[in-house]
Design goal:
Elements lengths: L1 E3 L3 H5 L2 H5 L9 E3 L5 H4 L1 H11 L2
């Protein structure tokens, strides 16, 4: 799960806790961006995806 650290998602919710209601193995992090993560911070998005797919 990725979300923008400057978006409303992290301010309104605990994104990982919400998704753990549906899945047992949930990982993720906030990316320094607003709502459009890949467009606003493509390098951090790619790095997070690469870590996930190792």
């Amino acid at each position: 799960m990725l979300w923008g650290s400057r978006s409303a998602v992290g301010a309104w919710y605990d994104p990982l806790a919400v998704w753990r209601g549906w899945a047992d193995d949930v990982t993720g992090e906030a990316i320094d961006s607003g709502h459009f993560i890949p467009e606003e911070n493509p390098s951090a998005t790619l790095a997070a995806l690469c870590r996930f797919h190792r």
